[in-house]
UniProtKB/TrEMBL annotation:
Keyword Heme applies: no
A Pfam family: DNA_pol3_delta2
Boundaries of every DNA polymerase III subunit gamma/tau helical lid domain copy: 60-105
Keyword Nucleotide-binding: yes
Protein name: DNA polymerase III subunit gamma/tau helical lid domain-containing protein
Coiled coil: none
BP GO annotations: DNA-templated DNA replication
Species annotation: marine sediment metagenome
């Protein structure tokens, strides 16, 4: 098994090609990669490809919930939702995060949103709520105050912008009637505003995120 096979040098690929062309008896080579485009065509043309899709957020959430129940932990559904969303389709990453959350929690076996947010470096809910409210009310001075608090608390500003973007994206999905979309915070802040407002804010924040990353 060759993991991250795209990291091989040109010389290594040439040596591997000769082995693949005349493999030893009863030997199967498994080449694993996340960047197939970096593998020479001379190699890929001699391989059978299997594409593994990322697991859905819902499937990861259900698996985390099952583990929590079997291990007799206590976890808020919203905390599990955050973990499932942060795993980017990887069950291994989700379970690793759950294990860290259990170890990190100040209350043994109790996992809530704040524990997971601290582990992931997410802005605390009260600051995020205040910043989102400032954007919705177009209150520039309050928004500046919120980000000053975020900075003084030691949070990464880019992470805070991503959190806000994801919050408004969730509010848009919830307001548009998508089943299971949006947690308590999204539902609370979303009242009284049309979904289109959240979509516009999410798009603008995404542009700010990209500009900040490239600055």
């Amino acid at each position: 098994i060759l993991d991250e096979v795209h990291m091989l040098s040109s010389g290594s690929f040439n040596a591997l090609l000769k082995t693949i062309e005349e493999p030893p008896p009863r030997v199967v080579f498994v080449l694993a990669t996340t960047e197939q485009a970096k593998i020479p065509v001379t190699i890929t043309s001699r391989c059978q490809g299997f594409r593994f899709r990322p697991l859905s957020r819902e499937l990861i959430f259900r698996r985390l919930r099952d583990v929590v129940e079997k291990e007799k932990f206590h976890a808020d559904p919203e905390a599990l939702e955050i973990m499932a969303g942060s795993a980017s389709g990887s069950m291994r990453d989700a379970l690793t995060l759950l294990d860290r959350a259990v170890s990190f929690s100040p209350r043994e076996g109790k996992i809530d949103r704040s524990v997971v947010s601290d582990l992931l470096g997410h802005v605390q809910e009260d600051l995020l709520k205040a910043a989102a409210g400032a954007l919705l009310s177009r209150n520039g001075s309050l928004l500046h105050e919120c980000f000053e608090k975020i900075r003084l608390e030691g949070y990464d500003v880019l992470s805070a912008l991503r959190d806000l973007r994801d919050l408004f994206a969730g509010m848009f999905l919830h307001g548009s009637g998508f089943s299971g979309a949006g947690g308590k915070l999204q539902q609370e802040l979303g009242r009284g505003h049309p979904p289109g407002v959240f979509a516009r804010l999410a798009r603008r924040l995404n542009r700010v995120v990209e500009e900040t990353k490239n600055s």
